[in-house]
Amino acid sequence: MSLAKYIEHTNLKPNSTSEDIIKLCNEAVENGFYGVCVAPYYVQLAKKTLKKNDTKIITVIGFPFGYSTVSSKVEETKKAITAGAHEVDMVINIAAFKSGDIAAVQNDIQAVVTACHLQNKHAKVIIETCYLNEEEIKTICKICADCEADFVKTSSGYGTEGATVENVKLMRKFLPAKTKIKAAGGIKTKEMANELVAAGADRLGTSASLVLIKP
User: Fold this and answer.
1) How many domains does the chain have?
2) How confident is the model at residue 188 (pLDDT cuts 50, 70, 90)?
3) Before 64, cis peptide (omega within 30)?
4) What is the spatial distance between Cα 160 and Cα 185, in angstroms, rounded to a whole number?
5) Which of 19, 25, 162, 213 has the most CB within a 10 Å radius?
6) In which domain, by residue range, is 27 found?
7) Quick check: helix, strand or coil at residue 40?
8) Which of 56, 124, 180, 182 is catalytic?
9) Is 153 a catalytic site residue?
10) How confident is the model at residue 202 (pLDDT cuts 50, 70, 90)?
């Protein structure tokens, strides 16, 4: 199995430079990665660097904590798509979810998914599994499916824990077949990457991409 096609080569470090992003894009092309995941600020640079390549540009919305307003997330999404993003990874309002305000969470997700789908772009929803128990993962997966999110993503990489095989299995159990899974956060070895794919991950977000594809 070639892991490269699963990988979104990622650099979301707050101190990343233009040179870092250009290098990221070139590595993605050279190694046949699915795409690059960069901060909204760098979407235009990624587009310019990748030119006509098939490598997809992914960016993040409401990142990393998810508690920005719905209107700001929608505006961020629209601007990211205009700049050249093919897919956006939005963080749910974890604070609202933990407070039991399910209507706010649903509205938050639906608004961003709709903004993406109106432009024929994909929306991923970061649920931050490290803060959720099994029942909460089940609830949020249902909300994401009801909102027709294209993917549900495990983690931002800024929580207390990243992707785990156990949580990917739970998500696969609770999500309909058409809703895909992105595992992200702490994927540092080829063994772990393969286990996550076997558990049901359709995409891998990682900054250790070059390590994962070593023979």
Assistant:
1) 1
2) very high
3) yes
4) 10
5) 25
6) 4-212
7) helix
8) 182
9) yes
10) very high
Q: How many CA atoms lie within 13 A of 43 on its CB side?
A: 22
Question: Considering 56, 73, 124, 153, which one is annotated as catalytic?
Answer: 153
Q: Which helix (H) or strand (E) holds 194?
A: helix 190-199
The tokens describing 4, both together, are: 């490269």
Q: Is 169 labeled as catalytic in the residue annotation?
A: no
- Please say if 180 is a catalytic residue: no
Contact predicate 88/80, CB 8 Å:
yes
Supply the DSSP string of 78-139, one letter for each residue.
Answer: HHHHHHT-SEEEEEP-HHHHHTT-HHHHHHHHHHHHHHHHTTT-EEEEE--GGG--HHHHHH
Radius of gyration of the chain (CA): 16
Q: Which tens digits make up the pLDDT trace of 92-121? A: 999 999 999 999 999 999 999 999 999 999
The pTM assigned to this predicted structure is 0.97
* DSSP string of 158-182, one letter each residue: SSS----HHHHHHHHHHS-TTSEEE
Q: Give the per-residue pLDDT at 91.
A: 98
Answer yes or no: are the C-beta atoms of 146 and 131 closer than 8 Å: no
Catalytic residue among 56, 73, 89, 180: 89
List pLDDT tens digits, range 21-78.
Answer: 999 999 999 999 999 999 999 999 999 999 989 999 999 999 999 999 999 999 999 9
CATH of the domain at 167: 3.20.20.70
